[in-house]
Records
---
Amino acid sequence: MGEAIEVRNLWYIYPNGVVALKGINLEIRLGEKVAIVGPNGAGKSTLIKHFNGLLKPTKGVVRVFGVDTRKTTVATLARRIGIVFQNPYHQFFSEKVWDEVAFALKNFGFPEETIRHRVTKVLRLFDLYDYADRSPFTLSSGEMRRLAMASILAYDPDIIVFDEPTVGQDRFHKEKIREYIKLLSSQGKTIILVTHDIDFVVEEFDRLIVMSEGRIIADGAPREILYNEEILTKASLILPQIPRLVKYSEIPFLLKHKPLTEDELLIAVLGILRGDGGRC
Amino acid sequence: MPIIEVDNLTYYYPGSSKPALANISLNVEKGDFLLITGPSGSGKSTLVRTFNGLIPHLFGGRFEGKVLVKGKDTRYCSVAELSKTVGIVFQDPENQILTLSVEREIAFGLENLGLPRKVIRERMEKVLKDLNIVHLRERIPIELSVGEQQKVIVASIIAMMPEVLVFDEPTAHMDPLSALKFLELVHELNKRGYTVVVVEHRLDLVAKYANKIIILNNGRIVVKGEPRNILPSDIAEECGVDVPRYIRFFKRISNLAKISRYPISDEEAAETLKEVLGYGRSY
Ligand SMILES: Nc1ncnc2c1ncn2[C@@H]1O[C@H](COP(=O)(O)OP(=O)(O)OP(=O)(O)O)[C@@H](O)[C@H]1O
Ligand SMILES: Nc1ncnc2c1ncn2[C@@H]1O[C@H](COP(=O)(O)OP(=O)(O)O)[C@@H](O)[C@H]1O
Ligand SMILES: [Mg+2]
Ligand SMILES: [Mg+2]
């Protein structure tokens, strides 16, 4: 597999002098599924805005599909890399929900029939079909966020970046987003998720990148990172719910097993209840 | 007298044929910590907008029934007047930013209250510290990360010390540790006598602080009561509420092991787990 995204010694300084990224090195392979976490102000959103060329490096290089983002345009990149931003209302400008989703498709020259089909499909998927004629700005906050996702997913880019997609979503919608990410991933898409929803991460992602103060401070398997107190503290992370329960319980067998999810805890607990787990 | 009383409220946004709120009745008493949750689009923010009169005054629409704040009907009070009692932090921080510096943002509301300079200074220092944003004091709010903006807006309302503090998904963009600390702060404020209303999805962090919870679905209150009784209920699950993982976990093993009562915090969950597995409290 080739590289979807390659970041070499990336520094970014905002016009106001804030040094938001301090020497980021990162490779994301085609088809990979990666989650990025870290404290407020760590530089997560700043980093992903480099992936479609919206921000250009102050120093260093960002390559997307091997192309230096400084040598191409946002419009060209956007066709292959879709970013769902953290402030959805920033990207809305249509009067109707339907048009908002259709816009990019029209722009990219899809035939009328395909547009109708795809818009219908994503609006239904995200439970927005009934709102097709409403103004995007009258949606509830969670609905707006789903609309932002729908308008990117409709044109089927190869890399999809989600900045905080689960904010304001209930469990059913989180579940839907999870299923959709799975589906996209199985189709070979590259998925990048920026989030504070660490429980969502452990249930779906196997590579976790931790940022702090403009740097990457950890990059690896969630289980290793999340059971490492030092990284947690540095990253203003708290343990996901299940590891938190394990930690407070201080049950040695579970501490050794390091379960991350409800299912994993269930298996471990059943082991103990059946007697084949070590009571130490 | 309840501090906020919602009496059989039904509300339609302008041009909408489906009510965003239907037959809502609800009392918020002085000293309450009320948690509002429910699926996306269920009417949580709409309900919150009725607490300081934004609905109906700013949004218009059809408004039936009534909302009373300290006994006064919101239809006959201005938003400005109601806001002195009920301070609301809305969703999406960016839309609430008014000024060009973090300090100005916090001072703005305080100056409008006509407070002396010295008091303004003191309160400013306190909330900057409480929200851990001292380092951002001279920054331009629109040039902050979303989570940083959220902290600034929250600080600006807390500084005004209204009797009722209302937060609509305040931790949505806060990193987990900030969210935890913020909710602890809200708990502290509640203990000091503030009445608190929080719309939240992070129930694992907040449920233990609330004495009342309501779940909204389709503009209706489907259930209300104490979090400990409501969260393990099937109705919470069916509405898509993000029930804490530990409650879901114990529900899943409840046919294998006797669960005497469902936990409402990490600490309680750990105790329950030890009980289930036969580990003594002090082993
Ligand atoms: N438009 C901007 N102009 C100047 N500085 C900015 C701007 N946007 C962000 N910053 C600053 O850059 C740093 C990184 O911000 P960024 O938005 O990338 O953080 P983040 O990790 O996405 O945080 P959050 O979790 O709050 O979304 C912060 O110090 C922030 O204050
Ligand atoms: N300004 C508005 N105009 C018309 N409909 C609205 C407006 N704001 C919200 N709605 C609708 O009212 C319902 C409840 O929205 P809201 O209270 O924001 O939900 P929640 O906060 O629970 O996610 C949703 O169906 C939403 O689309
Ligand atoms: Mg961000
Ligand atoms: Mg809302």
---
Amino acid sequence: MTRDAALLLPSTEPVTLIDPDGHPVPVGQDMPDPQALLHAYAALIAARRLNDQAGALVRQGRLAVYPSSHGQEACQVACVQVLDDGDWLFPTYRDTAAIVARGVDPVQALTLLRGDWHNGYDPAATRVAPQATPLATHLLHAVGVAHAARLRGEPTVVMATCGDGATSEGDFHEALNFAAVFRTPVVFFVQNNHYAISVPLDRQTAAPSLAHKGVGYGIPGERVDGNDVAALLSVLGAAVDRARSGDGPQLIEAHTYRVQAHTNADDPGRYRSADEVTPWLAKDPIMRLETFLRGRGLLDDDTIAAYVEQASLVAERMRTGLAGEPETDYRDLFAHVYAEPTPQLLDQQALVADEVSRD
Amino acid sequence: MTEKLTMAAALNRALRDAMRADDTVVMFGEDVGPLGGVFRITDGLTAEFGDQRCFDTPLAESGILGMAIGMAMNGMRPVVEMQFDAFAYPAFEQVVSHAAKMRNRTRGKLTVPIVIRIPYAGGIGGVEHHCDSSEAYYAHTPGLHVVAPSDPADAYGLLRHAIASDDPVVFLEPKKLYFARAEADLTAPVPPIGTAVIRRPGTDATLIAYGPAVPVALEAAEAAAQEGRSLQVVDVRSIVPFDDDTVCDAVRSTGRAVVVAEAAGFGSVSAEVVARVTERCFHWLHAPIRRVTGFDIPYPPPKLEHFHLPSVDRVLDAVDDLQWEDA
Ligand SMILES: Cc1ncc(C[n+]2csc(CCOP(=O)(O)OP(=O)(O)O)c2C)c(N)n1
Ligand SMILES: [Mg+2]
């Protein structure tokens, strides 16, 4: 591991491989192969569809709330595509699209936001941690999972995501420091969408960039265009390879933008203007990849139609799976507090059972 | 096979035996490696098991807890040491929001079998932030077990149970009792977490205590016996789960009770004990249950702590107050 500060610093500009107009940017870095880009394109279409469908389900009262990753789908897709089956993803509340991209059933992924339980999928089987709401706290769990794997000599890499606001939390710093000191195979992936609810990035940090924070811990930082899936695949892929080979953690900051509200309950008109949002719409991650792939003859209308069709199956699954009221069972309240319910919990469960029997 | 040893030695033996028995048990925290911890509870563990199984971390309690949770999510049984009670507070969010809730959030798919060892409470002349009785914070949090031993045998047995438990256990080690020697048979089985024990039989009134207050209660019972009053002493041992049966049977047998605890009384475990016992034993009681607790003040400086800590005299005064004239 290097202690040369210069080698830990991110590049002066975020790494971009495909510009917003869909043109390749001449840089030293290799473009991911066409198969990987096509796979990412299909996943982007699916992720956008999932975000749109979830928004509609909120309006219909089927979900309590939805923090959308609309506009951040390149980050969602890329951070999963670079992982192996045995790797772990530690997502936030905004990363439902990434969780589904990892293969989790969308209805199970939305259990938290539907409100029938705190988590709907099996984290151990899917290797996707429960979505973390207390900001940055899960980054330490990611370090622990990676450290345990490393002690057993397993090749596991852990991808841990957080937002720009979360980088101000103490646990962000503790996680980076622990990962660096123990050299654990974690990729810290910050989606800098420039807002923490209403608070803009310049109220969050005075650092030159979030990726610069790595140097304080001896972790290499890198900046990447968060709406360029090709650049994300390349930078995140390299970080995963590096972690797997035993070279320790890395901090990746993706520059992107939260084009929609924080959640459906938020009113962004109170803290930012439409003028600020408009330029980001032109940087949309899907359009630029589409233009690039068409320009290379890798994508045509028929292929796009097939991907759209696949994505609509996900939306269909969400609509049917989330229609109607979820089934709940009061016994779940008491069953999973301890391995064995305490005598007191059994008494309390009996009380509810009695109430239910009288209904 | 009894031997005379300190609680510190018993705890060290428990860690050593657990680490020998199970490769997934790891121990980490601040200064727990080569130094063996500021109280030497982890003495020799790094030497015997290597620095992958007993190691020092950077100075960050939330980091220690969070990393332990992650390791537990991935097949390990971490034991962590918080250097002192009041220095566990930076880790509070990890304990309350994650360790305590992970099983529940995931319907049992992920569990957090960790032990959070906390040198705990006062009576050692410690300066500020080194003597807090923080049990109520943890006991109030569903999903945690909270244990406070009062002698070497229990310290050994309960720590082995805590490490074997599939739930997170907050293990409160009374600093004041670390270096007191007692006869103990470490090979004798200790009942599982969740069982209180009658430390001394008695017929006139019941003293209910845990952790550092137990020796005070025993001393008070001894003094009362000189004056012809027979006091029973119950050691709660396990604050969560609470052994209602043993405690309530004891109180019913005497009809009078005093709860003794070092923590401030307001909103406390002692208050919970009074509420529980009153709800269950009202018709057996000859007098309201009294409490002898720390005052509702920040833990005092060393030269004043003797005013604050429950004393034998204060316990005996409370016993005197149990409306004997009506009997
Ligand atoms: C410890 C903590 N404090 C406050 C909150 C409330 N909260 C939820 S999301 C959020 C903003 C987070 O911003 P950022 O990290 O940039 O992520 P983004 O929502 O933009 O994806 C806040 C303040 C929380 N979830 N956890
Ligand atoms: Mg943000």
---
Amino acid sequence: MSEQSLVMKALTDVTLKRRSFLKWSAALSGTAALSGGLSRKLGPAPSEFARAAASEGEWITAACWHNCGGQRCLLKAQVVDGVVKKVKTDDTHPDSIELPQIRGCARGRAQAQHVFGADRLKYPMKRKNWAPGGGKKELRGRDEWERISWDEALDLIADELKRIIDTYGNEGILEVGSTLGGVFTLLGGAVRPWGTTSWGTWYYTGDIVGLGDGLTNTTHNDRIELQKSNLIVIWGGNPAWSAQGNNMKYFLDAKRAGAKFIFIDPFYNDSAMILADEWFPVRPATDHALALGMAYTLITEDDPVNNPLIDWDFLNRCCIGFDADHMPEGADPKDNFKDYVLGTYDGQPKTPEWAAEICGLTPKQIRYLARTIGSTPKVSLLTAWAPARVNDADSWPHMFMTLGAMTGHIGKSGSCTGVSCWERSADGGPFLIGAGGAGNPRVQNENAIRTQINNGELWNAVLTGQYTAGYNDVRNVNIQAIIHDGSSGLNQKVGMTKGIEAHRKVEFVLSINLFLNTNSKYSDIVLPATTQWERYGYLKGNRDHLIWARQITEPLFEAKDDSWIAAELAKRLGLDADLVAGLPLQQQIFNQLAGAWVLKDNGVDRENLLTITAEDIAEMGVEGEPQEGRITLQEFKEQGIYVVPRKDGDNFGYIALKDFRDDPEANPRKTESGLMEIYCPAQQKMIHDFGFTEVDPIPTYNRPREGYEDTFEDWENKVKGEYPFQLFTIHYRRRSHSIFDNVPWLREAFPQEFIMNPLDAEALGLKHGDIAKISSRHGTVIRPVFITERIRPGVVTLGEGAWAEIDEETGIDRAGATNTLNGAYTTGQGHQGWNSCNVKIERYGGPDALEQDYLWEQRIPIKEA
Amino acid sequence: MATQKAFYFDASACNGCKACMIACKSKNALPVGVNFRRVLQYGGGAWVPDPEYPDFLQPSGLFAYSLSVACMHCQNAPCVNICPAKAIEKRDDGIVLVDEDKCIGCHYCEWACPYGAPQFDADKGTMIKCDFCVDLIDQGEAPYCVASCPMRALDFGELDELRAKYGTVSAVAPLPPADLTDPAFVMTPHRDAQPVGQGTGRIYDDEV
Ligand code: SF4
């Protein structure tokens, strides 16, 4: 096809086929959701919402409340006669680098379609073939649903919880989410999952070795400092997909201020598309080997006078364990990092050639990276958490810190080493503004059990009755109830195929959710919860802004707030319902507003954000005292947002670890020595004590399970194995993890495609759009192939978070949920190794071609006539 | 003097996030399958053995960029010219509008437009398309897509003013040549942009 007709096709090929969707599409844009077939009368209460409905229409600040990794953006919904007409973003002030508008992403803009989705759960339901004790348990996930009343549902749940605790004790209950946390605490506790998710191995290792986890302790400079870097390295990160909103703009500001960008990633991702000056297509799960090859180059090529690549001053003053002269007392001097890299004692120098075989970059590229990072004055050496979401990657953050310490890009203007990701992407440092506490009393129970099972063996523990509680400490457990109170635990934890088996084994499964998502689908009773748009309010912000979102609509259908559900259950279980419910939401919001603070211009002292009058308090119907602050409550309500203006030289700048670099004795890290520990016995002990795997005190390379090497049957002789491809799983634009996956506009805009290189596709006889069958050692999915040169050959990727659609006959997941493919491994600090997964790929020979998933029937459990 | 409203797009800033597309859908309550604004991605290149290390494959000439495209409100608009019902008109400010009362839904405009801007609304039985958010700009506000862009890659204004500010480029591959319709469009090309009609890549996401 000629280019022009291709464009025409691309631009016009979408119009005619999708008529059946028009009807409900109109419905969910708001109109019919509130006035048509799905209608529900507004209650008589003179709520804010009803007042708005009666007026000409109003722009109300609307929550965007998901774990999206984004900026925490401003949305406003136009509500006219009780109907949400459209959604806009920040236009409260003119936009500038100093005072940016906090603009939302496609997901935020589609929020109305999420809240008013035709597939929202409308009322409590129970599975037809469920009975106390489980009924036909094997029918979970394929049974029919029956509508029940709230009273019936809550009574059934309370009875079942009592029965299970009486029979099996509190360890009989696994609470996967948290909205019933207070109930279970008072009830004597429940088993809970533990283990990091997003962080990978940064969660514990980052802090323990002396750097930081990247969220609680940010290790990157703020966005203004970022603009002073000569070079910004983004190693295993794609903020354009995983941290949306303004974050990518902050990187672009840095680029336009003159920073050069290097991307190290298997995928020439959309962030690289606009930022990258150079791209280094490393294989997934091999970053540690690459870093060692770079360390070797730095060590062997450094010449303090003629070719300074290593910051010896920083290493000698601020670190311990780099070489034999700087080892902690009691440690064998031979165990230092430098000699490990040089292979002095293990006979294996970690040369660029050694690293190249594993990581896929050439030795020349590895040397180039080391020389460039080592010799450039101001470098922001940034990674996201993705390279740490690899099996056995516990030493990777340790390695990354060591590379930063060697090159000295720590604690200086324009220089930093660490994690830039999630909502803190591109802007590190402590918050400049924040909300007060909600003021809820803590629900406590000293006698509650505290059993925790790692995510990596959670489902296995349900199936086998055993779990690891620590080193050499395997215990028995008999779980008979799985409680999904919020969260998306089944879809979003490794080893979903086992998870489904586990769900079919226990006696009771409860899900509280907005939709019949994967959790709900495999449950016995589902309860419909409200969204933040149906509640009195919600406060959320980021480093430099705070948002007050308000109620957009009355609760839809029979949906109830989580706190109401918890209190009603507490009542039935003879517990303190008021304590469980917490304060009335109005009062909680007021407390957060009254306690909201903002830093004064001196960058040290706080002042109240809000002036609150007695009339404000009366209007909100809460208890409180008038106060003085920077802006009035009415102003904040009207604007919905307060943004702290920034400029270079203000007192809000942040250079991570500057105090430490300047004076490590006065500002020690939280390590045993107070220094950055390149030799870190505490890290070794921590990993050992978890009881899964072992690491050395220095960051040595651990071959990951299902990494590159495992794609070979015989690594030495390079004979490929049964699963020859490396799959890594990406945060995908369509979703915030699994949230939004059901939203048709987003499904259409961001198809769930299987991304692979044309060389691989050609070898397998696959064309763009063909259906591929992708199998790992743990499960199989089918998805249309998206062919692009932008991914490295041998590596494939799929967005995480699609709602599994598992065919009961074949076990094949046609939605392409990545946890169908990711196996459950217990590893290191109990993280989940989503970016280490080996797969094989075939053409799918099944009967029906996959149609685009935005054409799939929505999950509406009970169809009304 | 006749004026001409126009869009500006900065391909060096666009990361393909589609916030503009969804903002537009929200503003116009568009169903799945109808998109007044679309973001497409164009790219290409190859993987070849590294000259020094032939066992290693390296990307060669690899490139990708995103384009956000809506109705171009062309100065020489083929849709206006072809419409048998005279249902498509250019306002005094150059904005091209479909008069739904006159439209007979014949699709001619859809076929005539090289940008695929007019689309069929099955419920109404008429063609619909980007109206430059006339309701907003008549009140002095920005079109929804422009105000939505997290990368600040979109702008709007008078065509001659945009040209004075941003230059005169109005097409790169794979867009149609600008002399076809004289689009009211100014863009900053991506660093890897390929010339119109001579692109070596392909449209990656041909779905939307
Ligand atoms: S980045 Fe997050 S907070 Fe911002 S609009 Fe998107 S989903 Fe909402």
---
Amino acid sequence: MIKKAHLTQWLDRVAQGYDLFGPVLDGVVQFERVNSSDQLVFDYANSVVPPKNLFLPQTECLFAFRREEGSIILEPRGGLERERVLFGIRPCDARSLLLLDEVFNSDLEDTYYQEKRRGTILIGLACPSPPQRTCFCTSLGIDPLSPEGVDVLLTDLGDRYLVEVTTEKGEELVGLSQELFFPSAEGEKLKGEKGKSLEEVGEKIGSLWEDGYWRELSRRCLGCGVCTYLCPTCHCFDLTDVGSTLSGKRFRCWDSCMFADFTRMAGGVNPRPTGKERVRQRYFDKFSYFPEQYGVLGCVGCGRCSQYCPMGIDIRTIINEVIARGAK
Amino acid sequence: MSSNIYLPHLATIIEIEAQTPDTTMLRVTLDDPTLAQSFTYRPGQFAELSIFGVGECPISIASTPTRKGFLEFCVRAVGQVTNALHELDVGSKIGVRGPYGNPFPLSELEGRNLLFIGGGIGLAPLRSLINYVLDNRDHYGEVELIYGARSPQDLAFKDELKLWDEQEGVTVYLTVDRGDERWRGPVGFVPSFLREIAPSPQEKVAFTCGPPIMIKLVMEALEEMGFPPDHMVTTLEMKMKCGVGKCGRCNIGSRYICRDGPVFTLEQLKALPGGLEL
Ligand SMILES: Cc1cc2nc3c(=O)[nH]c(=O)nc-3n(C[C@H](O)[C@H](O)[C@H](O)COP(=O)(O)OP(=O)(O)OC[C@H]3O[C@@H](n4cnc5c(N)ncnc54)[C@H](O)[C@@H]3O)c2cc1C
Ligand code: FES
């Protein structure tokens, strides 16, 4: 346990030894680097941009190159100067990082992602009740009070937080201000509510490849890509060179399967020529391809896509529609 | 320290050979001598080639691992990077990442007859396997190659086509979409040419690579001729960036072409949603 009044003291202690990131109100709530806990907000539902950008930045230089004496010098970038602590990540986003780990860690390891991931300790914040209008993590088997994927989880109990430490790194953080923490009385852990399960979407979507629903849905979609940028599990990126052949940098930048260019090949051939194919790709990826590859649904129910879609497309409606139309 | 999958190896162009008006073969060696020794690959795999400041693109390794010390890439100029690759000279530096993707199923081919069907630049990945097979001649049966291009001057690897045809147990059939005044050979599209030749499916595995429409029609023709779907192998093309299954770009169904492909049997494609839409 830690008293609410003491939380900021602890975080300021943390900020001395680590680069501290947490929710900041900067027009909207964002996870940003802070020097002191005064900059943090504690009363928020979730950030607009998911914390994935701390691990897969929207733009990131992979290496610099320059031509020199008949050869080319490559200088890799990336890496962290100091270990980081991310305060305030929600359980849905913590789960999303476990999913991104599957992508970036499986087969060949992505060092840019992994260095940031390994070098970041997560202090999670269990979700307040009631959830936001668009939240539906409980329908996908995620517990909004679960410490899964974080090193320390704090649950708001009014004037104090219940503190659950799950890793050694978490112990280290708590150890920085051991005097502020005190044992909890038994039975104080709250139980998360379970929503109506929508997990069968994964078994049903496969039958709907040819269904007219994707065309219908695509008529409403502007193809703006906001659902993919704000999705904590979307990881598509582009690689692009900036500079000249004499010197420059290679960057990776977020990209989106909602864009026509995403799959348009030299000469103009495009296997996903219209919105129908692109919309279908997105939901098949979340509910069929991702589970096929990694054994878990590729959506964590954070609801950002539904909350910020300018056309009011709600992923829960899509899931319900798939469940209603699909066959096992 | 683990290695950085996005950092290309430097390589130097040691030979350039024009193949057709828009296609050039680059022979390169890796600059790091240890790596040049240890770099291994198998026919069917590809590499990401970089021109720093322009970008990267996936190109099949057209050489065979049985001939060591260099890598060959046959590049058709169609866009930014491929055109820039055409502007290089001997001695120019490029970046190479790879090898990526799955190879042709080499061990399953031993003792079998092999049929190769290529269109245009699609001969490049097949060439790797053809030369691999010819360098291990005892392990494989008859080899047939059916190859077509838009016009006689668009046929790539002309010298090698002759060399192959002269070998025992190898037959090369050439066709062009449009002939010219000097062309004496058959004229017609590859799929219909294939139907005319009608190779027997007996103990045979068929490999095809070329434009998507050609692959589709060739697969249909082969199926009608009695080739079983697990004996029909193709390599697929999708837009790529990372080449390693991370950038999310090149999937057909749950398979990333860069990581789980580019080599697939028709049987595998049939199991993928949209796998036959090529
Ligand atoms: C597995 C594989 C093997 C290939 N082997 C060969 C080969 O041996 N010889 C050859 O000439 N071509 C080959 N290609 C096609 C070649 O990759 C494209 O022609 C090339 O990427 C076009 O790049 P560009 O920069 O010139 O074109 P642009 O239109 O400027 O393309 C920009 C970028 O988009 C991507 N891109 C565009 N078109 C394609 C495409 N068709 N396939 C994959 N990525 C694309 C590349 O990253 C490229 O750099 C292969 C493609 C794949 C997928
Ligand atoms: S090219 Fe990036 S996933 Fe295949």
